[in-house]
Specification:
The protein has about 325 residues and is mainly alpha-helical. The chain has three domains: about 40 residues, no CATH class; about 45 residues, no CATH class; about 220 residues, MetI-like fold, CATH 1.10.3720.10. Helix content is about 75%, strand content about 0%. It is built from 16 helices and no strands. The longest helix is centred in the N-terminal third of the chain and has 46 residues. The chain is flat and about 90 Å long. The protein starts with a helix and ends in a 9-residue tail after the last helix.
Length: about 325
């Protein structure tokens, strides 16, 4: 009995010692991690954005990158500065200098009220073409690319050849045949003349095809099928979340292409009430060259600034989905 009591007391006294040793080891590990992180931050601060394998700073690359940044931001800066000017200041002051009057708010109000608020109608039309046309093109590209990547069927190689061939044909070359076809069936000068051609995106289909091949493991699909999931459920619950970076990339490509489309609506639409922003702003810009027309370049510049704001918001809002897919395929399993 005495022996059992002494053994129990030994075990009870050893338990706190082991607990203190574990806590001490954990604290030492945390200190080592903090030290390593501090050393890494110090090394990164010294080397800047250089290659970790070659920590020497490249001034040539920095200068080239800086020139490229200036080249990309220069039009945006010019647009912001000149949208704050009146028409008189726009034609009489330096392009990169502010005018005598800060008229940004007045320009914005005039843009949305000029010609009975036609700019708002153009903006709504563009949103309609983007949501229905670009949204439909993205959906078709997702489903078609996934099917071509994960299913084997006769004629798959022929479809691949057709897709590659469609990518190599510029859209402008197809505008006139599309106009003749739509004129034959009576769809010109209607929203369908913009929406239906926008539904086809060969590049988006090819992009989703390649991305689906790499992002969705075939073993994962087989496991879902073994568990009794249907193909539609497997697609929406298993595959779709893995395709998020590719979906965002395809969506942005189709959105930008539809938003900036100029030649197709130029030949398809005659009624100004169905114009997108690109054609409407160009009509305002040409107004000064017509007989008795009024020069309103300040409204054209302000309207252009309003036009690009939704695209900037879309890129910034969807950036996190790109970042989530940067490491896809980086680790070999």
């Amino acid at each position: 009995m005495t022996s059992m009591t002494s053994d129990a007391s030994t075990v009870s006294s050893a338990a706190p010692l082991e607990g203190r040793a574990a806590r001490k080891a954990e604290k030492a590990r945390q200190r080592k991690i903090a030290k390593d992180e501090a050393a890494e931050r110090s090394r990164s601060a010294k080397s800047g954005f250089s290659n970790p394998a070659n920590p020497l700073r490249s001034w040539a690359l920095t200068i080239i990158t800086g020139v490229f940044v200036i080249y990309c931001l220069f039009p945006l800066v010019w647009l912001i500065i000149n949208s704050t000017k009146t028409q008189q200041d726009f034609v009489s002051t330096f392009g990169l200098g502010f005018g005598h009057t800060f008229a940004l708010w007045d320009n914005l109000v005039t843009v949305f009220t000029y010609q009975d608020g036609i700019f708002g109608r153009w903006f709504v039309n563009t949103i309609l073409y983007v949501v229905v046309g670009a949204g439909g093109a993205t959906l078709l590209a997702i489903m078609g690319g996934y099917a071509l990547a994960k299913f084997r069927f006769p004629g798959r190689k022929a479809v691949f050849a057709v897709v590659i061939g469609a990518i190599s044909v510029p859209g402008i070359a197809l505008a006139v045949p599309q106009f003749l076809l739509f004129a034959k069936i009576g769809l010109t000068n209607t929203p369908w003349a913009m929406i239906i051609p926008s539904l086809i995106s060969p590049f988006g289909l090819y992009l989703m095809w390649i991305f689906s091949e790499q992002a969705v493991p075939t073993e994962l699909l087989e496991a879902a099928r073994v568990d009794g999931a249907s193909e539609m459920r497997t697609f929406f619950t298993v595959s779709l979340p893995l395709l998020a970076p590719g979906i965002v990339t395809t969506a942005l490509f189709t959105i930008v292409a539809t938003w900036n489309n100029y030649f197709l609506p130029l030949i398809m639409l005659k009624d100004s009430s169905w114009y997108p922003l690109t054609i409407g702003l160009n009509q305002w810009n040409k107004q000064a060259t017509t007989a008795g027309g009024q020069a309103i370049q300040n409204l054209v510049v302000t309207g252009s600034l309003v036009t690009i704001i939704p695209l900037i918001i879309a890129f910034l809002a969807l950036q996190k989905y790109w970042q989530s897919g940067l490491a896809a395929g980086a680790v070999k399993e």
